[in-house]
What we know:
Blueprint: H1 20-25, E1 36-39, E2 43-47, E3 57-58, E4 63-64
Antiparallel strand pairs: 1-2, 3-4
GO molecular function, one term: ubiquitin protein ligase activity
Keywords: Nucleus
InterPro entries: PUA-like_sf, SRA-YDG_sf, SRA_YDG, UHRF1/2-like
Amino acid sequence: MPxxxxxxxxxxxxxxxxxxxxxxxxxxHPPRFAGIYGNxxxxxxxxxHNGAYEDNMDxxxxxxxxxxxxxxx
Length: 73
């Protein structure tokens, strides 16, 4: 399935979400655990930055995303 890129109706820039589940249900970041949504062909549709890693930085227009760990459930 291709990564969805661009605006998603009903979710204007600046919209906030209560949690990852709400973000996923809105279609903004479908995976509930992965920090990056996308693939090598289409690129990244969204990145969730939660501050869990000190070497990741969100500078507003640039995000440094150094790690993606796989959670064991």
